[in-house]
Automatic annotation (TrEMBL), chain A:
Domain ABC transporter: from-to ranges: 77-273
Protein name (database record): ABC-type multidrug transport system, ATPase component
PANTHER family reported for this sequence: ABC TRANSPORT SYSTEM ATP-BINDING PROTEIN, ATP-BINDING CASSETTE, SUB-FAMILY H, MEMBER 1
Keyword ATP-binding among UniProt keywords: yes
InterPro entries: AAA+_ATPase, ABC_transporter-like_ATP-bd, P-loop_NTPase
Gene3D superfamilies linked to this entry: P-loop containing nucleotide triphosphate hydrolases
Keywords: ATP-binding, Nucleotide-binding
One example GO MF annotation: ATP binding
Pfam families: ABC_tran
UniProtKB/TrEMBL annotation, chain B:
Pfam family, one: PadR
SUPFAM superfamilies per the UniProt record, alphabetical: Winged helix' DNA-binding domain
Phylogenetic placement of the source organism: Bacteria, Bacillati, Actinomycetota, Actinomycetes, Glycomycetales
Record domain Transcription regulator PadR N-terminal: where: 14-85
Top-level taxon in the UniProt lineage: Bacteria
Record's protein name: PadR family transcriptional regulator, regulatory protein PadR
Length: 273, 112
């Protein structure tokens, strides 16, 4: 991507992330001059525009009001000594976790340490070899892959997922459209999911997970920042769900500041034996 | 682990460097590297500087230089200088506690 385009998309991405347009333009101009002064490409100096916009937007937005004492609700997910074995490979060895409504748990660990497997087990999409999984009845689940059906439009997704939760089709579409608007996305009629950009597919996935105001939200953080698409600031969304009273379990593949998270579950991964 | 720690201390590092003297972004990157912290990516550095600016601890000004293009210079505000001094004191206290703990652990390892 050329320098000029990088700065243009930075300005746009900052606005999408809630920075006032005037300030977004000023920050983009600053970045342009800074890169020019350093004599390098903006992407080289600042990294991908999407990731940089996320960092700058977080820094630029007014500080949130002092955190109120959060109310933690009932337990929405309890894992007791959960083990998963594939043939002779032990992927999860005795995972314990108690997550309450109004809390966030982050699952971290190297590739192949069983993070996505754990998410599937929590969702009920895979079975634990042993151990106990207890969870709230109403869950939202946004996996990394297979979250959306490529040949259905967003509206059809809303109806389909709404039906699962016993919502009428009109209410499902209205709710889905409303939630999408909250993420800065207005679904166009007729475009199937396969035709949506990566960032928009992610938004669809998040809307579907949220459709029924679930008590427990399970999600897999997308690998982002490698293209210039407007990905959500997922963590802003995570804390918004938490503050609305949901328990959130996030599988994360990137290094983050995990200070604000209530539980960090580090999976070690295992060797074959 | 080093990277994660540094992430937590970057604001303090920047306050310390700017307490010494005002500087521009690339200059700060070089001084951080020269101090032994390795290369800090611009994607990490500039958001930190912006945050400090928003907190009123740092003031940024574009200045023309005699050679080459104009650059954005960062310097501490009065409040920034106070914050730097205060945080350095807190850091020292924290470091002493950690040192004592690490020494006890090292002794325990030797004795076992």
């Amino acid at each position: 991507m050329s320098g000029a385009r990088w700065h243009e998309s930075l300005a746009r991405l900052l606005v999408e992330r809630g920075v006032a347009p005037g300030e977004a333009r000023r920050l983009a101009e600053d970045s342009r001059d800074e890169a020019r002064a350093a004599g390098v490409d903006p992407a080289e100096l600042f990294g991908p525009a999407a990731a940089y916009a996320a960092g700058m937007a977080r820094a630029a937005r007014p500080a949130p009001l002092a955190a109120l004492t959060r109310t933690r609700g009932p337990v929405v997910l309890r894992l007791t000594k959960v083990v998963k074995r594939y043939r002779r490979r032990e992927v999860l060895r005795g995972v314990d976790l108690t997550l309450r409504a109004g809390e966030v748990a982050a699952v971290v660990g190297a590739n192949g340490s069983g993070k996505s497997t754990l998410l599937d087990i929590c969702a009920g999409a895979a079975k634990a070899t042993s151990g106990l999984v207890e969870r709230a009845a109403s869950i939202g689940y946004a996996p990394q892959q297979h979250g959306v059906a490529p040949y259905l439009t967003p509206e059809e997704h809303f109806r389909l997922f709404g039906a699962v939760h016993g919502m009428g089709s009109r209410r499902a579409v209205a709710t889905g459209t409303h939630l999408a608007a909250g993420l800065g996305w207005r679904p166009r009629a007729g475009a199937v999911a396969a035709r949506l950009s990566g960032g928009t597919q992610q938004k669809l996935n998040v809307v579907l997970g949220e459709l029924n105001r679930p008590e427990l939200i399970l999600l897999d953080e997308p690998y982002q920042g490698f293209d210039q698409d407007s990905y959500l600031d997922l963590w802003t969304q995570v804390y918004a769900w938490r503050d609305a009273g949901a328990g959130v379990l996030v599988v994360t593949h990137l290094l983050h500041d995990l200070d604000r998270v209530d539980h960090v579950l580090e999976l070690k991964g295992t060797e074959d034996r | 682990m080093r990277q994660q720690w540094l992430h937590g201390f970057l604001d303090l590092c920047l306050l310390c460097l700017l307490l010494e003297r005002r500087d521009y972004g690339v200059g700060l990157t070089q001084r951080l590297a020269g101090s032994g912290f390795g290369d800090i990516p611009g994607g990490t550095l500039y958001p930190s500087l912006l945050r400090l600016e928003k907190q009123g601890l740092v003031r940024a000004d574009w200045a023309a230089s005699d050679v080459g293009p104009r650059r954005k210079y960062y310097e501490l505000t009065g409040e920034g200088r106070d914050a730097a001094a205060e945080r350095v004191a807190v850091w020292r206290e924290f470091r002493d506690v950690m040192d004592r703990m690490a020494s006890r652990a090292a002794t325990a390892v030797e004795e076992s």
